[in-house]
């Protein structure tokens, strides 16, 4: 909150009251009296004023409008840190010139399948292997993941291929076991506002891939990043994965405008997940290309050797051959926007 505009009807008494209120918060008022109305410039560290306090100010008599200049998120904001955040995961630099691709199955189903997929996506040029060991399923009767056994397979896949691991955490109680195996901790869309979980990963020293909530605004998403960062962990990667809209032709609506918007608002790297964004395998490639063109720092793509038999998200998974072809095509798009893949 930085600028307060008073109503034309505001009295000197209203003004004194408002100035006192600001001073009680350790702020100063710079009053400019125009012919029509009075405008107060608030001086001091206004980032300490919460949105609730700002809303409370709005009800004071004499106030017409309270305009915030500083963002409610601070650590995540570009105003706070102008240069791009670059995250180094086992020598893979996220947020630099190279666009990194995180690929793998939705869920780790068994060892053979994971090893096979990991080998194939590495050959095609992926930088990370992904797979869920703890799955957030809509139905409690659907496959819920292999738990620690799945994490072990991911670690074995890393050993075999050299690809660092990305996997999802659903519960703060699993943090220890997940950190034992993973290189990047994923917070899924359904948990973007699970604040206890955000604080938990905020205290760890591994990068966090923070997916956008199903119906989250960009501001709410950045506030979720702020939760993680407020605990000390500055290594947050944002992942656009589609939002709920009225459209039913695709699983979600992939909001690619979020990429340039985020580039303006935050210094954090931005990854796009077209797989969950569209939900259909044949729409993944065009949206992956569009993501690179829009300025994404990375992609998350679901790949399965046998999508027909997949235990989750088979409909949106690429086969290794299709993934390889896409990786080739992406090189051209990346070069056109001054990046590498
Ligand atoms: C996933 O990455 O498999 C997943 C569950 O994603 P989201 O949280 O975006 O739905
Ligand atoms: Mn999935």
What's a quick, concise take on this entry?
With 341 residues, the protein is of the alpha/beta class. The protein contains eleven helices and 14 strands. It folds into two domains: 3-67, Phospho-2-dehydro-3-deoxyheptonate aldolase, domain 1 (Alpha-Beta Plaits), CATH 3.30.70; 87-336, Aldolase class I (TIM Barrel).
Task: Explain what the structure shows.
The chain has helices at 12-24, 51-58, 111-124, 148-161, 175-181, 195-202, 218-230, 258-265, 274-278, 281-294, 320-336, and strands spanning 3-6, 28-33, 38-43, 63-67, 87-89, 92-94, 100-104, 128-130, 165-169, 184-187, 208-211, 236-240, 270-272, 298-302. With 341 residues, it is of the alpha/beta class. It folds into two domains: 3-67, Phospho-2-dehydro-3-deoxyheptonate aldolase, domain 1 (Alpha-Beta Plaits, 2-Layer Sandwich), CATH 3.30.70; 87-336, Alpha-Beta Barrel (TIM Barrel). Strands 7-8-9-10-11-12-13-14 form an eight-stranded parallel beta barrel, surrounded by seven helices. Strands 2-3-1-4 form a four-stranded antiparallel sheet, covered by helices on one side. Strands 5-6 form a two-stranded antiparallel ribbon. β8 (128-130), α4 (148-161) and β9 form a beta-alpha-beta unit. The longest helix is centred in the C-terminal third of the chain and has 17 residues, at 320-336. The protein is elongated, with a radius of gyration of 23 Å. The model has no long low-confidence stretch (mean pLDDT 96). Bound molecules: phosphoenolpyruvate (PEP) and manganese (II) ion. Phosphoenolpyruvate binds at residues 106, 132, 136, 188-190, 211, 241, 276.
């Amino acid at each position: 909150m930085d600028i307060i505009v008073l109503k034309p009807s505001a009295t000197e008494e209203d003004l004194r009251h408002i100035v006192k209120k600001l001073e009680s918060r350790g702020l100063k008022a710079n009053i400019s009296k125009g012919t029509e109305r009075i405008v107060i410039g608030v001086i001091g560290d206004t980032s300490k004023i919460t949105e609730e306090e700002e809303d409370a100010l709005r009800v004071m008599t004499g106030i017409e409008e309270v305009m915030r200049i500083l963002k409610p998120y601070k650590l995540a904001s570009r105003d706070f840190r102008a240069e791009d955040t670059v995250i180094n995961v086992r020598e893979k630099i996220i947020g630099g010139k190279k666009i990194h691709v995180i690929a793998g199955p939705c869920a780790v189903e068994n060892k053979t399948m994971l090893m096979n997929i990991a080998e194939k996506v590495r050959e095609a040029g992926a930088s990370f292997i992904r797979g869920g060991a703890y799955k957030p399923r809509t139905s409690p009767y659907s496959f819920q993941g292999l738990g620690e056994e799945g994490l072990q397979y991911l670690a074995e896949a890393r050993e075999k291929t050299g690809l660092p691991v990305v996997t999802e955490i659903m519960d703060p109680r699993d943090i220890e076991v997940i950190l034992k195996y993973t290189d990047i901790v994923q917070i899924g869309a359904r948990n973007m506002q699970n604040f206890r979980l955000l604080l938990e990963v905020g205290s760890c020293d591994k990068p966090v891939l923070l997916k956008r909530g199903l119906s989250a605004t960009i501001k709410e998403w950045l506030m979720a990043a702020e939760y993680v960062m407020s605990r000390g962990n500055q290594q947050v990667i944002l992942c656009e994965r589609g939002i709920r809209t009225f459209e039913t032709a695709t699983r979600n609506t992939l909001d690619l405008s979020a990429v340039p918007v985020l580039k303006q608002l935050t210094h954090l790297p931005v990854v796009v997940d077209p797989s969950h964004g569209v939900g259909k395998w044949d729409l993944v490639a065009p949206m992956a290309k569009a993501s690179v063109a829009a300025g994404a720092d990375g992609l998350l793509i679901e790949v399965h050797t046998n999508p027909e038999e997949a235990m989750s998200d088979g409909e949106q998974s690429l086969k290794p051959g299709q993934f390889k072809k896409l990786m080739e095509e992406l090189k051209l798009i990346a070069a056109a926007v001054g990046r590498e893949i």
